[in-house]
Amino acid sequence: MELGEDERDIDREWIGLELNPFDDQALEQAVLLKESVAARVTAIAAEAEGGERMLKTALARGVDEVRLIELDEEAVQLSSRARAPLYAEAIAEIAPDLVLTGVLSTDDLYGELAPLLGAILDWPQVSAASQVTQKGASVTVRQEYSGGAAAMVEMQLPAVVGLQTASRPPRYVPGSKLRDLLKVEIPTSEPSVEPGADLADATTLELPDSSGGAEMIDGNAEVVAEKIHGILSERGLV
Amino acid sequence: MRCLIYVEHNGGQVAESALQLGTLAKSIGAEAVGLVCAGDGEAVADLTRQLSGFDAALGVADPVVSAYNAQAAAKALTQCVETQAPDLVMTSYSTAGIDLAPTVSIKADLPMIGYVLELAIDGDGLAAVSMVYGGKLRAKTEIATPCIVAVMPGAAKAEALAGQPAPNAEMIQVDLSGLAMTVVETLEPESSDVNLAEAEKIFCVGRALGGTEKIGVAEEMAAALGAELAGSRPVIDAGWMPKVRQVGKSGTKVKPKLYFMAGVSGAPEHLEGMEDSELIIAINSDEQAPIFGKAHYGAVCDMFQLLPALTARLNAGK
Amino acid sequence: MTTLILWIVTGAALALSAWRFWRLFSPLSAARPTGRGQQLGARLSFMIGDIALHRRLMKFSYSGILHACIFSSFIVLFSAIVESFGSGLFPGFSLAPIGGNTWIALLQNLFALVIAVGLGMAIYLRFAAKPDRFKGSKTFDATVIYVLAGLIVITMILEASARLAIDGQGSVWRPVSTLFMLPMVSLGITGHAAERVEVLFYWAHIGAILGFLVYIPGSKHRHMFTAAPNIFFRPLTSKGQLPAPEEDAPGPVQAYSDFTWKDLLDTLSCTECGRCQSVCPAHAAGKPLSPKTLIMNLRDGYLTDQGLMQSADHALPIVGGTIQPETLWSCTTCRACMEVCPLHIEHVPKIVKLRRSMVEEGQVEPLLQTTLTNFQSQGNSFGKPPKQRARWTKGLSYKIKDARKTAVDVLWFVGDFASFDPRAQKLTFMVAELLGQAKVDVGILYDGERNSGNDVRRAGDEGLFEMLAAHNIEQLEACTFKRIMTTDPHSLNALKSEYPTLGARYEVLHYSELFLELIRAGRLVLDPRAAKRVTYHDPCYLGRYNGGFDAPRDLIAALGHELVEMPRNRENSFCCGAGGGRIFMEDAPTGERPSESRIREAMALGDISTFIVSCPKDVVMYSAAAQALGVETELAVRDLAEMISETIATEELVAP
User: Fold this and answer.
1) How would residue B192 be classed by pLDDT, with cut points 50, 70 and 90?
2) Which of C21, C77, C110, C639 gives the lowest tally of CB atoms within 10 Å of its CB?
């Protein structure tokens, strides 16, 4: 990973983007809800590199509808904080019972879309959730805390869930389904609200100081095993 | 500068991460004010007594917050921020912190930063260092007060304030009516023979394990080492190991004499759970794995070649 | 009376046998078509040659010889069967006028001995030598066949012995029967007594033959009837071309009728000989795959599905019920099984078809899922953006042309591993420098290239393969070039054998061919003084799939090295374990890794300094294997490019 010249952003020239793994879990959970309680699922994304492809993947995985929120070219690198009002607007239009999104993203200072949406929409929100089940006008989720503790939380719908783990690992989307969707037009919508204020302009990035890291052991497996064994014996750990 | 700290607790114990926030607040010369939400006045008082070195504490006593309730806690913290007008609001970057910091940021219209590792006074405002991209980069942000920061657990040492007197809680009234969220049940970590928190030696494997069919290799390694076997989040999520064996933010926090890890890249959530281990040895096939920044010893190699070799050596040495 | 009884029992046995065959084979008509009705002449002549010469059977010489003994005897002894039934069903019928009592009788007697030898060898092999390849085969079935075949021959001999005993006169045309006549005569069995014994053995002979006939449909000895059509209808397309999903029925295989009828015939033809199992790298590594058991399980699954067998282990669904996903993911698609099968059974296409049905369900090995997702998003297995593909060209002594912008002589399709893997990159760089030295007019596609899709197709993602291939073809079509060169046999296979079905035909060379050509043309001058004793590993997709056996060997010879072949060479080469998408999956040690087995094989040659490879994946696989075995100082794993580089004459010696 390398930094751009202005140290405001990473150098995107040479990197590949992929779906945030937690969003992947959220997408899977949504499709699982479709399969278990016949939920109608809409996937939304704001324009970003690969956003359209991601929505096609979502269609291939079984969501019913997708929507791409159009952004100006310079706005595609917006933070989750800045994007939150745009999503909230689209969500208010779609008016779902439940919003699922990944609990965290690591590519900006905020990384927490679910509580932002919950606060903007004034809907109850739980982050770090797993085991989403729906009953009538409420959903019950398991909220995970540190140390292995957890709680079962019941929320009245509509609600927002920041998902950590879906009930089963995300499924693979075969190329045949993607191929069939290659020519599908992704419906777009233009936001009428302004992006939220964030601190992007007050932030500079740097690579962490890598000195002080591990003392590296070189060699093949046998040599490494021998050295590790030596370290452990020296310290009386074996 | 007055710093309002949301105090997390579980089972009558204040979370260590909350005490760390106290240390961090004091380290920048701020006044550390804890917000303690609990089921009744007595519980608030008990918890407040644990806030060594805090300058003040505010108490909210209400049955709906006897266990953590995301919506109620957010209401309490937002109202507290509005009435107390602190210069700085701190939460941990924990599940509760993820719920609360952004919510209050919107509701009270304050700027917010997450993933905070370091904090310093910078003129009229603050300078914060956050880790982004899973620890691969550091972000330095200048932020004006009042503001909210969500701090990575481990950013400061809780012990720094140990032994100092704790404040008394000043009870405040907040409106917690109209909640759309109920905590139905709290679940303690499953008890079992596995006790990672107390283990002296832990062998932890990551996603590179690939599946349950290969778990024997890891079990043999753990047995040869006399260590408890543990897994990182992907290993647990995939169902290759039970939840009790998870180390990290959403698993168990450990502090063994030896933490030997194979195929764990070292996501911040994992590091949070094991970085206090006395000796960390990591092997990974990716030389860029962030874990090598934290480990004491590292080696780039294929775990399925190294582990049998090391297991054989350990067994031969016994 | 006798005639009537014979008519009745023969008719009944034929009817029963025919009914049994019908039940087995009639469902094949509901299976998918194969489209193999063309080139009948070529099919026929190959089939006859293959059967008559025992071409594939002789690869295992002991088994080949014993099979030849039994096979030839069956043909000769068929005359005895004709005689027995002919004379019984049509009184007066006899082969005597054409030599039934002279040379035909002699042949029958001699081949009775030949079959005895064959059966003896077979029995020894199965019950004493017990090679591993028989593990999992049905011994009982084989035993029944030995007994029935033995009975047919013994009764035939003894029937004639009894006939000779009537007069007590032996015959020079029937030496074996005469030999057995002697004890009969000495026991007083002559005249009427001998006639009665003759009748007894006649009916025993008839009984054994009819028993055999009725038994065969349910036995692996069906292959007497199915081998010929199975070989006749073998694929004539290039070996590297996997059958595409049928256009009229593109859905994945879920029921047995979703296979082609030839797929099902394959399973019914299998003789459980286990040659495939003995050459399978996955099986050798302790993975849950044996090509033989796979075919047997598909057969038993099919039989169970048709209600011809009761087996809980072979219930539907095919994947997950009869065949486990881990079994299917274990295959490296190396084609060793198909190359060795005497019946030309197509194991790999069946595995790929079943993989396709898993992929279609979204059921994919976890690490493979990550890799396939990388292919979808970035077009390569490394998940790197296409822009990084040509990063390895940094530092080259010349700027390699962009074939999309300028016409070139040779278009170099670099491939994923050669472009992105740090170890393979160094070799790629070296190849580029060599091409530069030889002044080859070469260009690459830069970020226009995507993975060729060869392994994606074999991992079972047909749609993804088509997308990758369509992209590459679109790029290639827009370029002007004469030939395509690649260092990667997997890319070679796709470009050479798969893309033509998508309408893209090119002349595709492996770098071993191009460099041999350059050396022969004097465009690269060698200084072959530092000769070494070396061995060479045939990559599956260069050798077995595309017949590229000689160019690398000629090249090694041109470099002046002494090539010592490993026991498993050319079409018997042993896969490194990386093919068919295996390299993208987790490789837990369940047994000896194929790559390590191969390194041991090379080490066992004694005093070999260099293990030469000609595939970027092999470089990675075998370097790791040599390192794991701790022999990397004794046995250097080297790519052809390195071998050429170190033998190249210094600049001054190169003619301008």
Assistant:
1) low
2) C110
Say which residues have a Cβ less than 8 Å from residue C71's Cβ, sequence separation at least 6. Answer: C54
| The 3-state secondary structure of C284-340, one letter per residue | HCCCCCCHHHHHHHHHHHHHHHCCCCCCHHHCCCCECCCECHHHHHCCCCCCHHHHH
Give the contacts of C145 (CB within 8 A, at least 6 positions apart). Answer: C215, C219, C220, C221
Q: Give residue C99's Cα distance to chain centre.
A: 43
* pLDDT-derived band at C653, boundaries 50, 70, 90: very low
Q: Could you tell me which chain B residue has the CA closest to the CA of C586?
A: B210
Q: Which residues does residue B138 pair with via DSSP β-bridges, in sequence order?
A: A206, B131
pLDDT band at C656 (very low <50, low <70, confident <90, very high): very low
Are A148 and B132 inside 8 Å of each other by CB?
A: no
Name residues whose C-beta falls within 8 Å of residue C460's C-beta, 6 or more positions apart in sequence.
Answer: C352, C354, C355, C356, C357, C358, C359, C581
Name the A residues in 67-126 with CB < 8 Å from any B CB.
Answer: 81, 84, 103-104, 106-112, 115-116, 118-120, 123-126
- Is residue C176 a contact partner of residue C113, using CB atoms and an 8 Å limit? yes
For residue range C143-191, list pLDDT tens digits in order.
Answer: 999 999 999 999 999 999 999 999 988 899 999 999 999 999 999 888 9
Centre a 10 Å sphere on the Cβ of residue B125 and count the other Cβ atoms it contains: 18
Closest CA to B76 of B151, B4, B3, B184: B4
Per-residue pLDDT at B83 exceeds 70: yes
3-state secondary structure chain A: CCECCCCCCECHHHCCCCCCHHHHHHHHHHHHHHHHHCCCCEEEEECCCCHHHHHHHHHHHCCCEEEEECCCHHHCCCCHHHHHHHHHHHHHHHCCCEEEEECCCCCCCCCCHHHHHHHHHCCCEEEEEEEEEEECCEEEEEEECHHHCEEEEEEECCEEEEEEECCCCCCCCCHHHHHHHCCCCCCEECCCCCCCCCCHHHEEEECCCCCCCCEEECCCHHHHHHHHHHHHHHCCCC
Residue pointed to by tokens 């007083």:
C188
The CA-CA-CA angle for residues C390, C395, C401, to 5°, reads 50
Do residues C524 and C438 make contact, with C-beta atoms less than 8 angstroms apart?
yes
What percent of chain B shows pLDDT beyond 70? 99
pLDDT classification of C247: cutoffs 50, 70, 90: low
Q: What is the pLDDT of residues C502-534, one digit of tens each?
A: 999 999 999 999 999 999 999 999 887 778 999
Q: Which long-range contacts (CB under 8 A, 24 or more apart) does C286-293 make?
A: C286/C590, C286/C591, C286/C592, C287/C326, C287/C330, C287/C590, C287/C591, C288/C324, C288/C326, C288/C327, C288/C330, C289/C327, C289/C328, C289/C330, C289/C331, C290/C136, C291/C337, C291/C347, C292/C133, C292/C136, C292/C137, C293/C136
Q: Any CB–CB contact under 8 A between B286 and chain C?
A: no
Task: Provide, as residue numbers in chain B, all residues whose Cβ is less than 8 Å from the Cβ of C367.
Answer: 210
pLDDT beyond 50 at C134: yes
- Rg of chain A (C-alpha set): 21
**Is the Cβ pair A208, B300 closer than 8 Å?**
no
Q: Interface pTM (ipTM) of the complex?
A: 0.86
Rounded to 5°, the CA angle C316-C318-C321 comes to 65
Q: Are C352 and C460 in contact (CB under 8 A)?
A: yes
d(CA C362, CA C584): 17
C-alpha dihedral sign at A86, A92, A96, A98:
positive
Strand partners, B89: B4, B148
**Is C588 within 8 Å of B308 when comparing Cβ atoms?**
no
> Over C48-59, what HEC string results?
HHHHHHCCCHHH
